[in-house]
Amino acid sequence: MANRLFRAVIMGPPGSGKGTISGRIAQSFGLQHLSSGDFIRENIAANTEAGVLAKSYIDKGLLVPDHVMTRLLLPRLEEMTRHSWVLDGFPRTLAQANALNSVCKLDMVVSLNVPFETLKERLSHRWVHPASGRVYNMEFNPPRVQGVDDISGEPLVKSDDDKPEAVVARLRHYKDNAKPVIDLYKAKGILHTFSGTETDKIWPYISSLVSAKVRS
Ligand code: G5P
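Above: inputs. Below: predicted complex with G5P.
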């Protein structure tokens, strides 16, 4: 558990393991895990105005516009002023990074650097439970029963986002948009980049770093 408030952002292309790493950080260090993708999926499920709008972009493999994302995310962050958190999937653009900067000070940013071929392979093995957003990988974290969500027993589906053409487009968008954000955090001296093809091998290094920062 953190001794003082601690705020971390996990960046990385689609399929790089942001959700997996953030979940482990949250669990190991007693932080709240905030995920932009989960916020969007909650809003889509609740049929809010922002959710309906966001879905129209996600269905085309596009990023949700900055003003929609900041409207969804910033109020949630402002409610968390007394909590330590790890934020996954936001910011993805320089405008989002500037908006985040206006509401909080980050302690660290982790950038996951995973080769393109590994990402393509991973996303092609990914299945989701649409109602909850739970994600499975047929090799890395398979469901207990093939094709079925562990908790609800409902069928798993392949997201349109994970079809090969959409994956290539998403990876390209990520690179273009993330570069200025990565440069910004590098200039602030809070960026830590981890490269590799396996989350389980990267994790011990991230865990040691977070442990040192949380307790510093
Ligand atoms: P999301 O939900 O943020 P993505 O596409 O950025 O979605 P994704 O695909 O959920 O990110 P991730 O969180 O980086 O990936 O990675 P993960 O889920 O932990 O792991 C990916 C898969 O690989 C899983 O099946 C996992 O089990 C497996 N895996 C992990 N590690 C390993 C490993 O070592 N080996 C193997 N074999 N497998 C592994 O956003 C969804 C959409 O919402 C919009 C965008 O349109 C986005 O595409 N959006 C935003 N738009 C604008 N601005 C923002 N800030 C936005 N945030 C979301």
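The chain is about 50% helix and 15% strand.
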